[in-house]
Amino acid sequence: MQYIILYFSTALIFLGCDAVMLKHVMRPLFVRSLGDQLAEDFRLGPAAVFYLFYIAGILILASLPALREGSAWPALWKGALIGAMAYGTYEFTSYAVMARWSPHMVYVDVAWGIFVTGLSAWGGVMITRALLGLFN
Question: Transmembrane segments in this chain: where (predicted)?
Fold first, then answer.
């Protein structure tokens, strides 16, 4: 039960925050920089694969160790580190090889990845601890 609560609470935080950020900040930023290079329609399949595995990675590397330690704070900094690595890999690689990628896109998206991944890991642990406390 712990794993299910942790996965879904982390995913809910991450997906909710990311949907708002993608729609209101990242999409307009990408449209300005990349224009006609963007796909017309959102491709749900690749996004779903990313999110399913990314949330699992957050749990394995940040959230579950924090639960075992009995504190949500390690999930925050470990999640932030995962966000820096994952979003940094994507953004810096894109900037290195794509002519129209901008430094502004890199900074905004890497900062976002650090924030949203840390927040999601921490929040998932907090929600899981709270809900399991109610049932014990």
Answer: 43-67, 79-98, 110-132
Interhelix angle 73-97/103-135, rounded to 10 degrees, is 150
DSSP string covering 50-65: HHHHHHHHHIIIIIHH
**Between the CA of residue 46 and those of 51, 52, 107, 120, what are the distances in Å?**
9, 10, 23, 21
This prediction has a pTM of 0.94
Which residues constitute the domain of residue 72? 2-135
Classify residue 124 by its DSSP letter. H
Q: What is the CA radius of gyration of the chain?
A: 16
Number of domains in the chain: 1
User: Using an 8 Å Cβ cutoff, are 113 and 86 in contact?
Assistant: yes
Tokens representing 118 are: 């840390």
- What is residue 22's predicted lDDT score, i.e. its pLDDT? 92
| Measured distance CA(96)–CA(106) in Å, rounded | 11
